[in-house]
Amino acid sequence: RPFLLESSGGTTLEAETVIVATGANARWLGLPNEERLAQSGGGVSACAVCDGALPHFRDKVVAVVGGGDSAMEDALYLTKFASEVLVIHRRDELRASQIMQDRARENPKIRFLWNKAVTEVVGDDVIKGLRLKDTVTGEETGVDVGGLFVAIGHTPNTAFLGEQVQLKDNGYIHMPHPWRTETTVPGVFAAGDVMDDYYRQAVSAAGTGCMAALDAERFLSHGG
Question: What is the pTM of this model?
């Protein structure tokens, strides 16, 4: 200490403590219409818990893309509001834990579309449907949906840290003390989605932001 922080604009700052709160970005399918409709509120989302209860999705057929636990959790949550939930997966088996698979398979409102990849999101102002390609036969089909939820993971914004702060295998910041915001570097704290690979909610991020501020203040008041 002091820590030296260099911004993308070339400005260098000195600080006695640092709170890393750079968040995590949802992984998208990379389709042109997908990002546009996600940004405009056109029925495409990467957070079912955030958006699934909105009136736009109620009593409609919606799709979830993914095959892991997050996708199954999203699909099960959406059954509370949608008339039917289509789980689209590019393989014929899921990566999700067995208990999550069983829950999803047993829910009568969930239908699986196996060996399918989304090639196009159809719709101008709002999503109207999806174009799908069979990953085995190459056959292309269409399906009408009123919503699309992409659940293929998140990427934490930690690349800039290099090896200066210990990260977990999935790239999120490792927090050595449960319910605390200290990282493995004294004086460096973390808050929000950059260290939370489980809840990923605005309210929990705000809470850890408050915790990090208190931890940093106490660190300084005790002389570091």
Answer: 0.82
